[in-house]
Recover the amino acids of this structure.
């Protein structure tokens, strides 16, 4: 029995050490961000691409107040309620004392300046596909936004999901930087893929997740349960019951105006998405449409039972 106990103890110790190393935070290559200047105008477009104010503005903020990134919006999930933090340029309540590399590690590795894992409610799983220059431009633009001194609220997440180190194991299983769809030689589709799979983070809402929150890539953009309440987030593949009946021009028009081909009007959280997409160049909305039209037709994903 003593020998068996020693073996089991040894295996448990090896497992714990392995889990500790696998769950360690990973960081971007600093060389990718050295000597990168930023452009405010381009950064404003990246800000719109990423829809930063859709989550980080105060609840019910309107007009110019949507650029006050004081946080406070609540996002329900199967694991608890996540609350968007203050990411305004305030050095105490917000991220005003961050360097470019801090923003890069947050957006592309899901790691805070003090080495803690962020929850994937923050879509670093998509932002990891962004180009360093876009992040540098975004960094410069965000410095120009109004400050807010409102403290960030803690997430309402219970055990065991409140153990941040455990998120490193989740990342080991599900955090990938590869393109989801096969890259296209068509420049317009390639640009659309960059926007949809990266900065636009469309899959974070439109792709179903497994029991522990990983995106089901085999059901890419085929719709998902609405985490905030009743209803279902639409399938946006080329299935006949989804966007398959829309032309590329109709998709681009929807992203610019919020009007569907059936003269319906965008609603819910998609309204904020359209508000930001409307700020992009026509070529970017056309590129998003081209990428969506290139997707295979998948049936709408069904809610988990």
């Amino acid at each position: 029995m003593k020998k068996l106990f020693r073996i089991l103890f040894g295996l448990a110790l090896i497992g714990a050490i392995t889990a500790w190393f696998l769950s360690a935070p990973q960081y971007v290559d600093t060389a990718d961000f050295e000597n990168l200047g930023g452009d405010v105008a381009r950064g404003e477009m990246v800000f719109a691409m990423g829809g930063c104010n859709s989550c980080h503005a105060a609840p019910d903020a309107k007009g110019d107040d949507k650029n006050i990134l004081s946080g406070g919006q609540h996002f329900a999930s199967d694991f608890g309620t996540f609350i968007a933090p203050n990411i305004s340029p305030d050095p105490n309540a917000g991220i005003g004392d961050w360097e470019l590399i801090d923003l890069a590690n947050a957006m592309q590795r899901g790691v805070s300046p003090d080495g803690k894992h962020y929850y994937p409610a923050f879509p670093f799983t998509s932002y990891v596909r962004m180009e360093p220059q876009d992040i540098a431009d975004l960094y410069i633009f965000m410095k120009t936004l109004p400050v807010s001194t409102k403290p960030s609220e803690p997430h309402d997440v219970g055990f065991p999901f409140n153990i941040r180190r455990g998120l490193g194991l989740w990342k080991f299983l599900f955090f990938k930087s590869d393109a989801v769809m096969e890259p296209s030689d068509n420049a317009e589709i390639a640009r659309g893929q960059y926007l949809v799979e990266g900065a636009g983070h469309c899959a974070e809402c439109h792709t179903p997740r497994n029991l522990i929150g990983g995106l089901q890539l085999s059901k890419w953009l085929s719709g998902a349960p609405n985490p905030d309440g009743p209803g279902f987030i639409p399938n946006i593949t080329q299935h006949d019951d989804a966007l398959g009946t829309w032309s590329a021009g109709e998709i681009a028009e929807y992203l610019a105006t919020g009007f569907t081909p059936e003269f319906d009007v965008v609603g819910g959280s998609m309204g904020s998405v359209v508000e930001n997409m409307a700020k992009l160049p026509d070529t970017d909305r056309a590129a998003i449409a081209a990428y969506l039209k290139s997707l295979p037709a998948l049936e709408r994903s069904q809610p988990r039972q």
Residues 125 and 175 are 6 Å apart (CA to CA). The mean pLDDT is 89. The first strand starts at residue 74 and ends at 77.
